[in-house]
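protien #1 (seq + structre)
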Amino acid sequence: MRQIVAVVGGTGAEGSGLVLRFAKAGVLVRIGSRNLDKAQAAAREIAARVGTVEVTGHTNPDAVRNAAIVILTVPLSAQVGTLKSIRGCVAPGAILVDTTVPLEIAIGGRLSRTVSLWDGSAAQQAVRLAPPGMPVVAAFHSLSAEALARLDEPVDCDTLICGDDAEAKAAVSELAETIPGVRAIDAGPIDNARFLESSAALLVALNLRHKVKHCGIRITGLALGKVRQ
């Protein structure tokens, strides 16, 4: 049976961009939202664009049932509530991927600044809120929604991946590299997620300064596989 990937918050810019790319690669994707009609409308739009029937819309709890990988793509202000709403529905053995960036705008501050969290990072906060034993991986912070939405172009960016479970990181890396132009790089334990989240804020600042929307990151000097175009 093919694995299901659930993108919770999949109607937002980042979430829909990931759904678009995964669906194009032939991944079976569920879009999760608090609003069922909104999720189903987004699924129809993406399915029509990609030419597939394997994108479906659901409420967040229904989206994660039986999903092998659950990707959380919500703003910081919604992270806690969303995780609490799905924690009783995730399948045993599922992997949680947290993409949350703790931007200051969540508390009325600047878009390009981060806030400090008690747990150390948004990903570590997700570890605390996830069901016991569920592996949590931090990933996709550097992939811009603008670049993901440009379906006819490769995404010229690496994605750094942090987590404490090697098998979970390998599974998320394999999924990430279904996106043309993306290379997944193991960046160590979940404790390093704070650096990924801060780098995302830096990319936001660069986008604002240079009046673009698709800044990315490439790591050089590592003996890794060739980027798939």
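ok now protien #2
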Amino acid sequence: MNDAGWMAEAARLGQGARGRTAPNPNVGCVIVGTHGNLVASGATAPGGRPHAEAVALDAAGDAARGATLYTTLEPCAHASDRGPTCAALIPAAGIERVVIAVEDPDRRTAGEGIAMLRAAGVAVTLVDSADARDSLSGYLTRVALGRPRITLKLALSIDGKIALPSGESKWITGEDARAHVHLERAHSDMILVGRGTYLADSPSLDVRLPGLEEWSPRRALLTRGAAVAGWETLASPHDVFRLHDVNDLLVEGGSGAATAFLAADLVDRILIYRAPILVGAGKSSFGYIGLDAIGDAHGRWVARDGARLGVDRLEIYERVA
């Protein structure tokens, strides 16, 4: 396997840790021996420590000597009272070459990790990996913009309705789509709904997938009303800028919360779970978002690969402007 293939595997490991490491990045790492064999692998541990490189090096032991280490993010270089930096651990373990997908934008490491490795005699190669960037998108967004990456989830009928006129919405989509939503929850640090949804549905917002129950994220309400025990409160969408320990925020609804975040231009990604049903008169997914001309709507979103989920269809859109 070539560098791109091994980095794709590291990105898969990092993606699997998403939602468990904030505010640290969810890094993936693999170590490959001199004969092209997989020696060890690892991802950032829950809570953010130990880092992926330390996990993989510990698993590799003496087999790390002379090997190549692939990591989705530049190894850390800033001192910590919780242990040595990864940029120091790697040469000490005898790694001869390090392949890095993304330079760390954190000013405490940015470029310093690479410089430390090269100063210790380790060959460093940078490769471009869309998979690695995607796996780290929550962390990269938070460092760049000072807020989490925000994903808006909507379950819609063919004609774009989220509920009947009565408000009934259970269940628009089938079991496969709902299971995918739970996986998205598991890979989010926080999940948010509006006060109306909380009062109407009393949602638990937990993860109910076998083996992932402990991955249920923190819960938040978008409300200017009284606080609710067990829930964090955001008075407005702009309060996301104080969520310094959240990399990925999932907004599940309802229409008021969706409208508020879109109107504030704070949505990075939209997941639409489209059911093959027609509702007709019913509740729309969101209201006025500040758009007054159709021409202004174009060029803002791009469709990514979707998926068939049982009878339903997942549509994925990412903001491009």
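The mean pLDDT is 88.
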